[in-house]
Design goal:
Oligomer: single chain
Strand content: under 5%
Number of strands: 4
Shape: elongated
Order of helices and strands: HEHHHEHHHHEHEHH
Largest sheet: 2 strands, antiparallel
Radius of gyration: 45 Å
Length: 271
């Protein structure tokens, strides 16, 4: 069967030429269909593409923002210690004072109603906010604290309304101090009491009818012996317009002393 053998050699020679043309010329040619037993690798483009994680499913970046500082508006009767306890300030009143020294002034014992204190978040709070797990673990505690802080002004207002003062020298001084705190008038219990005992011995109806002021028709009156022109000039709104009224007399006199001497505490004689 020679014819059959020749027929087999012819494709072999043709395939050899085709391969030679491809390798020698370096040209990219479309190869003839080759049987399944061929050793040629599949083109690189045919390889399965490597899976790439979408950017949207990348590990989330902690985006919790730092808490803005809280601002507290001071009301009458408050102290730095009380406010520090209320907000759980790390470091207590000293830390609170350090952060608000420019607002409070040189005396941390004297804070005026109406000023706004900055309550900075403590380092523990910041650390908790930086950790998502910690944030989840303390969310209930922070919610409770927020409720307490929001309820504090209401409780303070109710407490102030419930305050009553005795109708005696101690009560008059304490009520005057509360009014003075509302208007930013300096003075202490000791300074007021010391001057009252010198001027009137604690008698709200005391009047001086013999000195030079009396000779001019403006006698000194009341607990702190204030003449009518001075009382009217330094009268504090919200108090009685009667110069014999104990609270009005004390408050007006302290207002005058603050204007002239810096404070009633600086008065140790006739003023």
């Amino acid at each position: 069967m020679p014819a059959q053998g020749k027929h087999r050699r012819s494709p072999s020679t043709s395939l050899g030429r085709t391969l030679a043309a491809v390798t020698a010329g370096g040209a990219v040619l479309a190869l003839p269909v080759i049987g399944a037993a061929s050793a040629f690798a599949a083109p690189a483009a045919a390889a399965a593409p490597q899976a790439v994680a979408p950017a949207a499913v990348a590990a989330p970046v902690n985006s919790v923002a730092k808490a803005a500082p809280t601002k507290h508006s001071v009301v009458a009767g408050e102290t730095l210690s009380k406010i520090a306890r209320e907000y759980s300030v790390s470091g207590g009143w000293k830390k609170l004072y350090e952060g608000n020294r420019k607002i409070v002034g040189s005396n941390p014992d004297l804070i005026h109603p109406g000023i706004k204190l900055v309550i900075a978040a403590s380092s523990d709070d910041k650390a908790a906010k930086a950790s998502p797990s910690a944030e989840r673990g303390t969310s209930t505690d922070r919610a409770d604290r927020s409720e307490r802080i929001n309820a504090a002004p209401v409780a303070q207002a109710a407490e102030q309304k419930a305050v009553t003062y005795t109708n005696d020298l101690d009560g008059w001084i304490r009520e005057s101090l509360a009014v003075m705190a509302e208007h930013g008038i300096p003075g202490t219990y000791e300074g007021i009491h010391r001057n009252i005992m010198r001027e009137s011995s604690g008698n709200p109806a005391a009047i001086n009818n013999w000195d030079s002021n009396a000779a001019k028709g403006t006698p000194s009156k009341g607990l702190l012996q204030v003449i009518d022109p001075t009382f009217q000039a330094y009268h504090v709104p919200g108090t009685s317009t009667d110069s014999y009224d104990p609270v009005a007399n004390i408050t007006a006199a302290c207002n005058y002393a603050a204007d002239r001497y810096g404070s009633i505490d600086n008065v140790f004689g006739a003023y």
